[in-house]
Amino acid sequence: MFDFVNKKSKISWKITILYAFMFMMLIFLINLSIYFFLSSFIDDNIKKSINNTTELVLSQFSGIGDPVNFFDTDLLQQISRSEENIFFRVLNKDGKVQAQSKYLEEMDIPISAEIEEFRSGTKVLAVKTIPMNNFVFSRGYLQVVRDITFEKNFLDFLIIVLTIAAGIGALISVFLGYFTTKRMLSPINKVTETAREISSSDLGRRLEVSGPDDELKKLALTFNSMLDRLEKSFKRQKQFVSDASHELRTPISVIKGYVDLLDRWGKEKKDVRDEAIEAIKKETVSMKQLMENLLLLARGDDSEFKKEEELFNFNNLIKEIIKEFELMEKEIDLEFAEEAKIDFYGDPNLFKQLLRIFLDNAIKFTSHRGKIEIKIDKIETDKFYFSITDNGPGISSDDLPFVFDRFYQADKSRTRKDNKGSGLGLAIAKQIVDSYQGDIDVESEAGTGTKFIIILPLNVDEDNNSYD
């Protein structure tokens, strides 16, 4: 039965049956305790009554020379009337009846020094046999008998009552347990129904949360929180696919156009062929960079970036990146002001990419003979910042809140025709900073240049050693 319950039944039935079983066991133990307590109590009263009566009777006739011959039927009958449900029989030394109460006539009564129960027809009695050797010249026995039929019938009736009560209690526990369990588990059923009805196109539904602050309420809150995350993830994925499709449509269309041009005129005209090949190469490089950025963002969405962390000097890393850009952009004035030496535990390759994104962005939107300034310093014992400032055209207040959004392109005045980007660089930069629990901010106004400020905690290594 329990194997069936465990494998095939609903959880409400499992809990109900378990609850009913435990309740039945509790009732059984209580009823058993009640029965044994009352049985022991009644037995003690019977023994006490027989012993007290025996002592009383013997004490009254302790001065008689031969009490065996003294007792007769009338005397025993008289004594029996004074003691409720207690009767007497006197035996001589040979065990033959000398005298007895009328109630005991024709009864086969055992001779026992201890109190012993016996039956006579429908009656249940208890007897104790007392030798009268302490009396002078006396050789006989006094038997004290008590009718305990009422007490035994009471105990038999008690067993029946307790058994019926246990059965009724078990049935009530099953019904109450089932309805109580069903009501208690109703929030889980709501979670199940909601989960069954929700699809990727209907993630806005939520469970109604009310009632006491118990485990089921926490389950509903957790489920709603999970739906919030799923909804954001689906929206982000949908937007990501839409943006990626939009960004890839243009270079694919350009490549297709030039392929058609090659097919039509490329065989006869060398200048057309060269132009088409150069354009296709350029668009292919652009697509390759776009795909790499998309994959990097996708990895960051799924989990944390794959990091190969080590202790490195952030100042030297900035100098290394500045040197790379000075070789490529000789007309841009790069200035570096370092106020403090920063040792940082992290992935130097990720931070190289981060710095390249900001510098590349600054160079794109800074005119020839322009100026770019980089600063680095500590702001607290456990934090540091670095900033990249350019004197380009700046960013309008309308565009400023969206500069870290994927594929977002600010006003065309900030985009040099020969340096058009995909709009993913700053989104990647923000994701790198976020992965190190840092903050990133931008200060800019149209016509006044732009300043990016990155604040990072001074990380610790695996041995919890600080690298300030």
Automatic annotation (TrEMBL):
InterPro entries hit by this protein: HAMP_dom, HATPase_C_sf, HATPase_dom, His_kinase_dom, HisK_dim/P_dom, HisK_dim/P_sf, HssS/ArlS-like, Sig_transdc_His_kin-like_C
PANTHER family with a match to the protein in the record: SENSOR HISTIDINE KINASE CPXA
Reactions catalysed, as given in the entry: ATP + protein L-histidine = ADP + protein N-phospho-L-histidine
Domain HAMP: 182-235
GO MF assignments: ATP binding; phosphorelay sensor kinase activity
Name used for this protein in its record: histidine kinase
Native species: Halanaerobium saccharolyticum
A cellular component term, taken from the record's GO annotations: plasma membrane
Protein EC: 2.7.13.3
Membrane topology according to the record: Multi-pass membrane protein
Main location: membrane
Subcellular location: Cell membrane
Residue intervals passing through the bilayer: 17-38, 157-180
Keyword terms, alphabetized: ATP-binding, Cell membrane, Kinase, Membrane, Nucleotide-binding, Phosphoprotein, Transferase, Transmembrane, Transmembrane helix, Two-component regulatory system
A Pfam family annotated for this UniProt entry: HAMP
Residue intervals of the Histidine kinase domain: 243-460
EC top class, as a word: transferase
